Every structure is written in C-alpha cells, then in structure tokens.
C-alpha cells in the first residue's frame, strides 16, 4: 500500500504533466494577449507553441491517472 | 544586464524561475524516498523502462552537446551526424543485446565493480581513479560552457553564472541522489525537445523546406557519406577512419562502458528492462540531429559569415534563438538549455559520487561501515565533487575547443576500457592480470601517442578517431599476450558474467515490442534508412 502511494507521489508522468501544462498556459496566454513578434515570421509562435505544450502536458496528466503498471516479471 | 544577445522580460524570468522551483521541490520530495544506499546510488533498481531509456540517451545530451553539435553542423555539415548514427546506434544495440545481460547478472553497482568481479582489485582501482578524475574534468567543461553561454546570451558574469549553476546542481543531487538526477534528465529531455524544436521548424519554414536549406549551404554539406571516399573532406577522415575509429572504438567504448550512461540501465527493474533501455534510447538518439546538426545548417544558411570574424560557430544556436524567438519563447529556450546543462552536470556528479563511494572509499578506506555511513559519504562526495568541478571549469577555460577537448579525454580513457571489456566479456580465458596490463598499457599508450608521436592529423576529430583505434589495438594485443602467460580465474567465479559461463536468456513468448532482439533489429533498420536518405 505504502509502495503504491509512493509510486503515485513520484509518478514522473504527473510531474512532467504539471510543468508542461503550467508552461502551456503561461506561454499561450501571453501570446494570446500580447502577440509578440519577430521579423522572421508572421504567425503567433507563443500562442501556438503554448497550446501544443498545453496539449502535451494534459496528455501526460491523463496518462498519470492510469495506475502505474506493475510488471510482475521475474528477474 | 548589458551586452547580451537577449533581453529577457518578466515572463521569461518567470518561466526560468518556475523550472528551478520545480526541480528543487522534486528534490525535496525525493529526499524522503531515498533511505538506503541502493536508493541513493541505483534508484533501488525500480524505474520504468521508458524512464531509464530516455535517461540513458539524455545523460549525454547536455547543453555542451546541443551547443557544440549545432556548431559542428555549421562547421562540417551533415557529416557531423555520424556522431549520432554510426557513432552511436550500432553500439547501443550491441550493448543491449550482448553486454547488458552480463552487467545486470553480475549485480555490480558500478562499472569498476564489474571489473573487480571479472578481473581483480587492481584493475578496478585503475578504472575507478581514472573515471573519477575524468568525470570531474567533464563536469568542469559543462560548468564552464554554461557560464560562457549565459555570459554571451544574457550578459551575466562568468563567475556568477558558474557559481549559481553549481549551487543548484549541488542542492539537487545531495537531496535525491541518482533518482533525482534521472528525474531531472527525463524532464529536461521533454523541455529540450519542446524548447529547441521550434528553431528547426521555423528555420525550415523560413528557408523554404529542406531543399530550400540545401540550396543555401555549401555544396556537399547535405551529405553524410558522399564525401568520405577520401579524407579530403571537412572532417579530415575517410570512411575507414570514421568506421573504425568513430563507429567501432570511440562509440562502443562510450556507449558500453562509460559508467555515466551505463548507470542508467542499472536502475532498470529487470534484466529485460535493462537490455531494452539502450535500444529504446537508440530510437531517440537517431533523431536528435534534427535539433542539433540541422540547426547548425540553418544557422549557416541564415548567417553565411558564421565562423569568420567575431561570430564563433558556437553561437549557431544562440543566434537563431535570438532571431526567431519572441519574448516568452525565449524564456522556454533558455530554460531548456539551463535544464539540459543541469542534467548533464548532475549526471556526472552522481556517477562520480557512486564510483568514489563504492569503488574508492569503501574499497580502500573503510570496508565495513553501515549503509547509512555510505549514504552520508555519498552526500559529502557530492559536495566535494561540485567544488572540484568549479575549479576544473577554469581549467577548461584554457582550451580552445571544448568539444575536441572532451573527445580527446574519451579517446584517452574509454578506448582502453573498451578493449578490456570486449575481451573480458567474450573470452573466458582472459586472466585478471591480462585485464590489468591491457588497461594500463592502453592508457599509457594514449598518452605516448598524444604527447610524443608527432603525426599531424587533418583535424582534431581525425586524430581522435585514429588514436582511439590504435589504443584499442594495443590494449587488445597486450591483454591477449599477458593472458596467455598468466593463470585464468576459476570458472565458478565467472558464473553469469562471461560468455560461455553464463548464457543469453531467450525472450521467446514475450510480445514482440518487449523483446530486445526484435527491437534491436527494428532500430537497425531505421538507422540504415536514415543513412540512405542522407547519404
């Protein structure tokens, strides 16, 4: 039981999910409001890449909801 | 804040600080988890395979690598991709299929410990001391290059950024040991992909796709094998040098015996998982040129004068970041580089800590202390290691090319180890003293070759390829020679750790995606296809 608790706590999928979701919201939100530009390209990179990071982050969070698979594999 | 390429705004600082806060919080959480020596040094052999696979690959994907390899792409062209393809993939597959079973079965906690089981205490001692020294030198290189990067990009002072980075790595590794550095490695891998990949995408879009890019770089820069018929190319080596020196010795030596990377597979939860670890890693490794070499080519097309005058090739990636990234994305890009630097450094420090504690301190200073004592010693070694690395960073500052310096260190030290391993794992007649003298003569010959034999190679790369090759030949000849006149170890002591005494397990009956052999062949196929596309 404690083992399982620990695995959930340290599930790397969840940690990465949290970080990327946060970055996605911050970056995408910033792009949406300020639409910063560079001279090389005309589309809103912050917004689009922020959305992509948000999607990746949410996918990781969803994956982490699945119980960690315990492989009963003999050594 | 003056004189930098970038001007960070509040949002960029927020993104950077959020990452460090995240890394430190994870470190604190892991501290509770790290109770025994096995937890601290080997992650309790419990990590899922996808994690060890990514960690195996990204243990060598530090910022030095990203910056250095994109510089290489701008200087040498697509030919530089050999470091990722023939210089990595065959070795990683071989490691998973043929060497990992012996490593894992030996239950060794480190590469030197395997050498002790297979050969003797003396062989282990030589390897442990040399490895500890090399790791700290390499840590110094990453500290220095990161300091330099922040100085160029942000206008921070060199000493300030070195000390700040060292402090963060220190806190992080002391808290969580190997698990925290593996966690950091995996997280930074995703950050690097998401933070750097837009440069490639925007660049290719900006230049009109791959064909548009090829049209704007020097003729032949898009090929990997095309100009290797003679040594009259940017690399200064023919295909023989590339295949023997890079593809065989340098690459096998690094990917199969460098404890920094091998340690990642030791953390896997079963033998099968440990075998699959480097093969998973090979699939990712093959595509890393997209965010290193290709970025170098884009930089060359966008800034045709790079490498001449006062713009160094090392600025290939930073200059593109500054050109393509708006506020916000700059924060992500800088965070990715910082994270990858920290991960490289943390990996080196945790490998140093393990080897120092088990293979030097426990072996020669204090044999039978409690597990707690060794965990404590591990933390002390981490602090000491970081301090030495800071000193070594000023040493690295004295070398003109950091990548060449690093490759030279590898050719000195990894090539002889590889010679000894290859014989030791696959020839049970190899004797303990054969291993010892092979190793010592190989290292000695590397020094003699480098300092005393005056051969002018076309490039430092060509020199490293050929030196590695001849060092390996000397190690093997001496190893075999001494083995023939000394007494081998009794066969019972070699059980499971040498071919012919142990045997390979069959994974028939597992689903195909779990079988190391099937995955290995798949990886090899993709590798061949990539080489044909970019011949």
Automatic annotation (TrEMBL), chain A:
Q: Which top-rank group of organisms is this from? A: Bacteria
Q: Which UniProt keywords apply?
A: Membrane, Transmembrane, Transmembrane helix
Q: Which residues cross the membrane?
A: 12-35, 47-65
Q: What is the protein name stated in its UniProt record?
A: Uncharacterized protein
Organism classification? Bacteria, Bacillati, Bacillota, Bacilli, Bacillales
Automatic annotation (TrEMBL), chain B:
> Which spans are transmembrane here?
6-30, 50-71, 83-105, 126-147, 153-175, 187-207, 237-262, 283-304, 324-342, 376-397, 409-427, 434-453, 465-485, 517-534
Cited CDD domains: SLC5sbd_u2
* Keyword list, A-Z: Membrane, Transmembrane, Transmembrane helix
Gene Ontology CC annotations of this record: plasma membrane
List the subcellular locations.
Membrane
Q: Name one GO molecular function term.
A: D-glucose:sodium symporter activity
Q: Is-annotated flag, keyword Nucleotide-binding?
A: no
Kindly give the Gene3D superfamilies that the UniProt entry links to this protein.
Sodium/glucose cotransporter
The record's InterPro entries line, in alphabetical order, gives:
Na/Glc_symporter_sf, Na/solute_symporter, Na/solute_symporter_CS
Top-level taxon of the source organism: Bacteria
Topology in the lipid bilayer is annotated as:
Multi-pass membrane protein
Cite the PANTHER family for this sequence.
SODIUM_GLUCOSE COTRANSPORTER 4, SOLUTE CARRIER FAMILY 5
The family line of this record is:
Belongs to the sodium:solute symporter (SSF) (TC 2.A.21) family.
- Name-wise, this protein is Sodium:solute symporter
Organism source for this protein? Pullulanibacillus pueri
